[in-house]
Amino acid sequence: MPVHNILIVQENPRERMELTDYFENMGFNVAGAFNGIEAENILADKTFEMVIVDSATPRLSPVDFLKYVKTRNFGTEVLFISKDPIVEEAVEVMKEGAFDFIIKPSDKENLKEQLKLCVERVFLQKNRHSKKQIKNSALNKPVRIITGDKAMQQLLAMAERIADTSASVLIQGESGTGKELFAKFIHQKSNRKNMPFVAVNCAALPENLLESELFGHEKGAFTGAVARKPGKFELAHKGTILLDEITEMPFHLQAKLLRVLQEQQVDRVGGTGSVDVDVRVIATTNRMVKESLEKGEFREDLYYRLNTIPLMIPPLRKRRGDVKLLSDFFFKKYSIIDERPVKPLTDDAFDLLSNQKFSGNVRELENIIHRALLLAQKEYIEPCDLLIEDPGSLEYDGQNDQHIPCNIASEPLKKMEEKMIFHTLDKTDGNRTHAAKILGISVRTLRNKLNEYKKTSKI
C-alpha cells in the first residue's frame, strides 16, 4: 500500500502531536503546522492528499486558506474542525469545496474516530478515481490478442502485413469473437497509429441519423441542425474508421458510402460541396455477407470494395486451446481491477468450462471468469462458481453430490438467482450496468428482476 500524506494544521502542540501519532500509527506520512503561514510554506514544497485544519489556528482565514490550497494543490482535500464554529464561516468553506466541517467534541477519542472515518472516505474515493484513470489509460495501450491457435496466428500475421496499406478490410465473425480488437490491432500496427481511430456502430444508430453521423451536416440542413457538424469520416481524417455491423446499414446509404470509398470525399447533409477525407476503412459484421447479397440487402459493388482484405475470425468453440490461455488472462485482469486474489480452477471446473459451446464466444468466457472470481468463496474455483447453464452439472444422481457443491446446492434456483444478483450488486457498489455485465444479462433484465423482488418485499 502506498504511503499517503496528511498535513495537520493545529496551534496546540499537544493536540497536534496526538493526531500526528494517531495517523502515523495507521500508516500515513504526517506533517504538522502551528499556524497558517507555516502551513502555506509546507504546502508550497510538498503535495498532500489531505489537510486537517483547526479553524481557530492563528494567522489563518479558513476561506482564504481553502482557496490557497485548491489553487495550488489540485486534488487535495481540506477538512476543518472547530470547537466553537461560526455558522456562516462553516457554510462558506463548504461552498468553496471543503471536504467536511466537524464540530470538535470534548472527547478526544471521539474526534479521532470522526477524523478516521473522514480520512478513510477521502482515500476510498481517491482509490476509485485512480482505478478509473488506470482503466481509461488502458484504452490507449497496445492491443494484445491472446491466442495459441494456428489459424488465429495466421490471421494476426496477415493483419500485420497489410496494416501499413490503405486497403479496406472486412472482418467477419460471430458476436464476441474480437472483431473490433482486430480492427484496433490493424490501426495500431499501421502508419496511422497516431491519428484518430473512430468507431461507428451502424446497427445502433437510427436510420434517419446515420447519414448525418457518418457524413456530417450543415447548419439548417434539418430541424434541430443549429450548427455545422462534421461527420465521423471527417473526424477520422488521416486515421481509421471502423464501421461495425456494416450489413445493418440501410441500402440507400450504401451507395453514398461506396462513393466515399471511391472518391475519398464526403458530402455533408445540406451541403453544396464535397469535403476531402483520407480515411482507412475497416468494416465488421457478425452475419454472412454472401447471404445478405443473395437477399438483395447488401450491395455487391460495396462488398467487393470493402472486401479487399477479408479476415474471418473463427469462433471460440473451434479453437478450444485458447480457453485456458484466455481464462488465465481474464483471471489476472479482473484480479487487478477488483482487487481479488487469482484463484485456480479445479479440474472439474476446467472440464466444465472447456466443454461449453460458447455461443457468446470470448465475451461469454470473459463474463464467466469475471463472475466466478467475484462469487467464489473458497481458495479455488469450483464448477458451481462458474454459474454455467448446464443442467447435467447440477443434477443429483443418487450416488454422489460432487456436482451440487457450494452453499447454494440445496436452495431453489430462484433463490440462488436472487442471492447471486444481490451479491454482485454489493461487489459493484450498486452499479447496475457493471453488475449486469458481470452477470451476463442486460440492464433491463436486471432492473426487472429487482422490481420483482420489491413486489415480494425482498428489498
SSE blueprint and pairings:
Elements: E1 5-9, H1 13-25, E2 29-33, H2 36-45, E3 50-54, H3 62-72, E4 77-82, H4 87-95, E5 100-103, H5 108-138, H6 150-162, E6 169-172, H7 179-189, E7 197-201, H8 207-215, H9 232-235, E8 240-244, H10 251-263, E9 265-267, E10 274-276, E11 280-285, H11 289-294, H12 300-306, E12 309-312, H13 321-337, H14 347-354, H15 361-375, H16 413-427, H17 432-439, H18 443-455
Parallel strand pairs: 1-2, 1-3, 3-4, 4-5, 6-11, 6-12, 7-8, 8-11
Antiparallel strand pairs: 9-10
Helix pairs in contact: 2-3, 6-7, 13-15, 16-17, 17-18
Structural write-up:
The chain folds into three domains: 5-138, Response regulator (Rossmann fold, 3-Layer(aba) Sandwich), CATH 3.40.50; 150-314, 3-Layer(aba) Sandwich (Rossmann fold), CATH 3.40.50.300; 319-455, Orthogonal Bundle (Helicase, Ruva Protein, domain 3). The longest helix has 31 residues, at 108-138. It is an alpha/beta fold and 459 residues long. The protein has a five-stranded parallel beta sheet with strand order 2-1-3-4-5, sandwiched between helices. It starts with a strand and ends with a helix. The protein contains 18 helices and twelve strands.
